[in-house]
């Protein structure tokens, strides 16, 4: 029997993987993908609790998050392309324009 | 007609004449611009030019005798067309008419003055300088006011008669003498202007207005000395006269201002009233304030009246035309100083020490100038030094308190010295510009009228009884001896001067008119007597030289009544005071006076005889004497080197070295100040810059640096790498959660 705890464990695992991916991977594409993982970990949480409480708002909110993730992916990739055109790199640690 | 009310017209007539000449003279007397005026009285210097002009005149057929038998070589024949100008008559009419009118009005005014008691008439026309309040020396408030006013009293009446009368005669003479000169109208304009200023000087009722005339006559003197301004020596002489006179004028002005400060007024009548009120006591011991006033005024007089040490301009003034020498530098202007001191008699009577200075300077000048005149060869220069010497006599008389005698000598001197100058002008005219007596001689029969008139003048100045010079000079000598302020020394100097006077005048006469002719053949060919316009004034002046003295016959000559002593009585109101009376009542020992008179006459005759013997009978004697006392002769001939000493002391010493000093001052002090100010500005700006850079900027920059240093630890966190930021976020979240977990 799959319980709410299972969902939460999966969600936590995804969040951990995503976070580590964001912090450790150099390629921005992968970082974006890791961010997707984090967002999806959130989605799993939302849906799990929506199911537990019998309240559809969580599912609606999950759809919002997916839309948000799409928009974020689009903007992020756009920025990435612009960056790549100027710096010819997609490695995050080589891009330090925001340094003081 | 009341002439007294019209005395303001007396100076106005010549001013009108001068104004007409200055504004319209050029129209009345057109003249060629290109030609150079050459004086009859000076050596021609533009030889080539003159010769050219001469040829030119021949070309145009201007014969030499176009006028009064003029046959001069360089006597401006080229300018003959002047005589054909019909308007020139108008110039003569104006310029002779105005002084004549003045003379007539003067005679009328003096005549009416004689009817009045007291014989003083003051006419104030208008207030010239309005009241200026000021603090006097004693702290009182006073108001300075100068009127345009005229004072006719016995003293000024003598002066206006001399100025207008002799002035008119000299104007007449000038029409002949200057007939061929360029600038005829200019000459007469200046001459009329001079008469105006001289009349203002003697008619003024206060010192301020007197000073106007005083400066005015100085100006005219300058203009007329430099009349032949193309000649450098004439221009220089004019400047010299002007500058030397200014030195004296400064003294006069200071004296006048000090007088204003002490007495609070400069009006003659007020000044006399204050001085004679008993408020001031005679400054017997030392020099007090009044003595300083009188000394300063006397210093002014030494400038105008050519006394030592300021006499040097007068001999040089002979560069002017001869009528000018006669009018300004013999008869009138140079006596202004005498007039001024006589006018200030009340002041000088209170300052016996100054009077002693006046007498000493007068006596010294008299003998100094006479000694120089002994050896000069220029006929006009002899007369110039003679004038200086005679003026010295006048100051001697003023100094011993015999004011009326000084004015008397001024009066007689005006006649015979004007006569002698005009006579010398006539000689120079006859010889076509020759002034050196070594190239004269034997002119007696060729120019008889000139000779006889000059003979009279020379006898008069030598002091032979019966002629004007005797009466006044003898009175001066007697006063110098007998007055309380006189002394045997002053008298002795005067007597020696009298001997020299007789000698040098008769040396002049003998060298000019007697003996062998030494005239250059060129000049000899056209010697001629001067025209009537010149000989008539000479004759009139000769008569004056005889008669003028009979107004002041010595008291000893009891044969003659009071009528022959009118001069002293006439002037009494101007000088009357206790001191004068005392001077008159001085030791009157008839036998002494007779002896002294005899001595002075004897010495005059000896002078004449010696001169005659030296220069006619035995002409070789002067040369041998000259050789035997060469240094002395050189000393006298070089005029005691006074000019050289002045050149060294003042022109070189004061002006040049002063100029150098001034330059050094300019460079070091003035420039130094400017440069110093510049340096100081630069220095202060450097300091300011340093302050700005290090202190002001430093503070600001240190502030920013400090903040920057503080912020450095924070700054290093901002790596610019997104993942680092994300790491901090995660770390923060973990710490946050960790906190809750651990708790």
Explain how this protein is built.
The complex is a heterodimer of chains A (100) and B (743). Chain A is an all-alpha fold and 100 residues long. Chain A has helices at 4-24, 28-53, 57-87. Chain A has one domain: Helix Hairpins (Orthogonal Bundle). Chain A contains three helices and no strands. The longest helix of chain A has 31 residues, at 57-87. By secondary structure, chain B is mainly alpha-helical. In chain B, 69% of the residues lie in helices and 4% in strands. Chain B is built from 28 helices and two strands. The interface between A and B is small, with 13 and 10 residues.
Which key features would you list for this structure?
heterodimer; A: 100 residues; mainly alpha; Helix Hairpins; 3 helices; B: 743 residues; two-stranded antiparallel sheet; 69% helix
The low-confidence runs of chain A, each spanning 5 or more residues with pLDDT under 50, are none
Record field, number of beta strands of chain A: 0
One letter per element, helices H and strands E, the order of chain A comes to: HHH
CATH C-level class of chain A: Mainly Alpha
Q: What radius of gyration of chain A results from the CA coordinates?
A: 16 Å
- CATH architecture level-2 label of chain A: Orthogonal Bundle
Mean pLDDT of chain A: 91
Largest interface: pair, residues per side: A-B, 13 and 10 residues
> Mean pLDDT across all residues of chain B, rounded?
84
Radius of gyration of chain B: 38 Å
Strand adjacency order, main sheet of chain B: 1-2
Count helical runs of chain A. 3
The CA-CA distance between the termini of chain B, in Å, is: 143 Å
* Percentage beta strand of chain B: under 5%
């Amino acid at each position: 029997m799959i319980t709410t705890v299972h969902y939460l464990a999966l969600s936590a695992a995804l969040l951990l993987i995503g976070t580590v991916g964001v912090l450790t991977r150099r390629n921005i594409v992968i970082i974006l993908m890791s961010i997707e993982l984090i967002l999806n970990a959130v989605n799993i949480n939302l849906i799990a609790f929506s199911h537990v409480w019998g309240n559809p708002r969580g599912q609606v909110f999950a759809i919002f998050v997916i839309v948000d993730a799409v928009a974020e992916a689009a903007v992020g990739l756009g920025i990435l392309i612009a960056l790549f055109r100027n710096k010819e790199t997609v490695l995050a640690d080589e891009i330090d324009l925001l340094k003081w | 007609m009341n002439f007294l009310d019209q005395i303001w017209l007396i100076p106005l007539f010549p001013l009108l004449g001068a104004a007409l000449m200055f504004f319209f003279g050029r129209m009345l007397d057109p003249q060629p611009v290109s030609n150079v005026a050459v004086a009859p009285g000076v050596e021609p210097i533009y030889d080539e030019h003159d010769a050219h002009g001469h040829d030119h005149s021949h070309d145009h057929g201007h014969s030499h005798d176009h006028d009064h038998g003029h046959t001069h070589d360089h006597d401006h024949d080229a300018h003959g067309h002047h005589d054909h100008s019909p308007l020139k008559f108008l110039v003569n009419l104006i310029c002779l008419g105005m002084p004549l009118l003045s003379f007539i009005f003067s005679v009328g005014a003096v005549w009416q003055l004689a009817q009045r008691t007291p014989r003083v008439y003051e006419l104030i026309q208008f207030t010239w300088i309005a009241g200026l309040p000021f603090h006097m020396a004693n702290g009182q408030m006073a108001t300075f006011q100068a009127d345009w006013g005229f004072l006719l009293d016995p003293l000024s009446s003598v002066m206006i008669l001399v100025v207008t009368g002799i002035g008119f005669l000299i104007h007449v003479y000038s029409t002949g003498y200057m007939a061929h000169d360029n600038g005829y109208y200019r000459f007469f304009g200046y001459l009329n202007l001079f008469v105006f200023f001289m009349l203002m000087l003697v008619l003024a009722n206060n010192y301020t207005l007197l000073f106007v005339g005083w400066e005015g006559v100085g100006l005219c003197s300058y203009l007329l000395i430099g009349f032949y301004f193309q000649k450098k020596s004439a221009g220089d002489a004019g400047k010299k006269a002007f500058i030397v006179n200014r030195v004296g004028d400064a003294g006069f002005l200071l004296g006048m201002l000090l007088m204003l400060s002490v007495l609070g007024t400069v009006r003659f009548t007020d000044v006399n009233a204050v001085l004679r009120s008993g408020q001031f006591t005679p400054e017997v011991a030392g020099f007090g304030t009044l003595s300083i006033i009188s000394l300063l005024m006397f210093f002014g007089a030494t400038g105008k009246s050519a006394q030592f040490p300021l006499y040097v301009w007068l001999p040089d003034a002979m560069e002017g035309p001869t009528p000018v020498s006669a009018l300004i530098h013999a008869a009138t202007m140079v006596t202004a100083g005498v007039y001024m001191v006589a006018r200030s008699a009340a002041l000088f009577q209170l300052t016996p020490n100054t009077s002693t200075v006046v007498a000493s300077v007068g006596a010294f000048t008299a003998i100094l100038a006479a000694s120089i005149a002994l050896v000069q060869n220029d006929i006009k220069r002899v007369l110039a030094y003679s004038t200086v010497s005679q003026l010295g006599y006048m100051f001697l008389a003023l100094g011993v308190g015999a004011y009326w005698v000084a004015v008397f000598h001024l009066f007689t001197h005006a006649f015979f010295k004007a006569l002698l100058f005009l006579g010398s002008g006539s000689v120079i005219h006859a010889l076509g510009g020759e002034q050196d007596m070594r190239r004269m001689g034997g002119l007696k029969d060729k120019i008889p009228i000139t000779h006889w008139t000059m003979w009279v003048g020379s006898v008069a100045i030598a002091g032979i009884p019966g002629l004007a010079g005797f009466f006044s000079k003898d009175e001066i000598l007697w006063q110098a001896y007998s007055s309380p302020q006189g002394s045997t020394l002053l008298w002795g100097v005067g007597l020696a001067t009298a001997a020299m006077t007789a000698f040098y005048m008769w040396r002049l006469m003998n060298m000019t008119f007697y003996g062998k002719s030494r005239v250059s053949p060129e000049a000899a060919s056209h010697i001629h007597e001067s025209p009537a316009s010149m000989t008539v004034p000479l004759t009139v002046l000769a008569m004056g030289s005889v008669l003028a003295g009979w107004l002041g016959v010595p008291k000893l000559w009891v044969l003659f009544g009071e009528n022959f002593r009118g001069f002293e009585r006439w002037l009494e109101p101007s000088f009357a005071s206790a001191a004068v009376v005392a001077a008159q009542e001085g030791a009157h020992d008839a036998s002494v006076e007779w002896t002294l008179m005899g001595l002075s006459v004897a010495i005059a005759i000896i002078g004449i005889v010696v001169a005659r013997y030296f220069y006619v009978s035995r002409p070789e004697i002067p040369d041998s004497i000259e050789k035997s006392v060469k240094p002395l002769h050189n000393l006298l001939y070089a005029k005691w080197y006074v000019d050289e000493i002045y050149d060294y002391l003042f022109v070189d010493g004061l002006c040049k070295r002063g100029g150098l000093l001034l330059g050094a001052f300019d460079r070091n002090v003035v420039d130094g100040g400017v440069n110093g100010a510049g340096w100081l500005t630069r220095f202060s700006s450097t300091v300011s810059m340093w302050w700005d850079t290090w202190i002001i900027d430093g503070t600001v920059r240190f502030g920013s640096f400090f903040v920057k240093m503080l912020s450095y630890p924070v700054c290093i966190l901002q790596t610019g790498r997104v993942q680092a930021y994300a790491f901090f976020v995660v770390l923060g979240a973990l710490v946050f959660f960790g906190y809750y977990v651990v708790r």
